[in-house]
UniProtKB/TrEMBL annotation:
<protein>
    <recommendedName>
        <fullName>UDP-glucose 4-epimerase</fullName>
    </recommendedName>
</protein>
<dbReference type="InterPro" id="IPR008497">
    <property type="entry name" value="DUF779"/>
</dbReference>
<dbReference type="Pfam" id="PF05610">
    <property type="entry name" value="DUF779"/>
</dbReference>
Length: 142
């Protein structure tokens, strides 16, 4: 099931070709995604913006978390060594608060309280953010 943000995801993909993107992966996140893909197959992220770990990106087997009209597809992330892109979804409310920032998925030691696939590895995904530059905002059409 795809979310209402499908058009926004396509715009983000076009912006990548122009030198701007909404989201990126750290080297540690890329390495962990390769490991998780080997264990679980195709992957996806969802970030709800809810309480507790809700503001952390959760990684699931692709299709395991059902997205809907209240979710935005920010990007289909290319991960070196993973054959299919990893979709990154965010709740629309969270996206409205963060739409002016570039997000980087990173990994830190410790275990989150959610059902994210990395939990048994003793690490958790988190988001690092920075404001877009004027050039990035223009390229993204924001």
């Amino acid at each position: 099931m795809t979310g209402a943000g499908e058009g926004q995801a396509e715009a983000a993909g076009e912006a990548v070709r122009e030198g701007a993107s909404r989201i990126a992966l750290s080297a540690a996140a890329t390495e962990l995604l390769r490991l998780l893909h080997a264990q679980h197959g195709p992957l996806m992220f969802h970030q709800s913006g809810g309480c507790c770990d809700g503001s952390a990106p959760m990684c699931y087997p692709a299709g395991e978390f059902r997205t809907g009209s209240s979710d935005v597809l920010l990007a289909r992330l290319a991960v070196e060594g993973v054959p299919e892109p990893v979709g990154f979804w965010m709740s629309a409310d969270q996206y409205e608060r963060w739409r002016h920032t570039h997000l980087t998925v990173d990994v830190v030691p410790g275990r989150g309280s959610g059902f994210s696939l990395e939990a048994p590895e003793g690490v958790r995904f988190l988001i690092r953010s920075r404001l877009f530059t004027d050039e990035e905002r223009a390229a993204l059409g924001d």
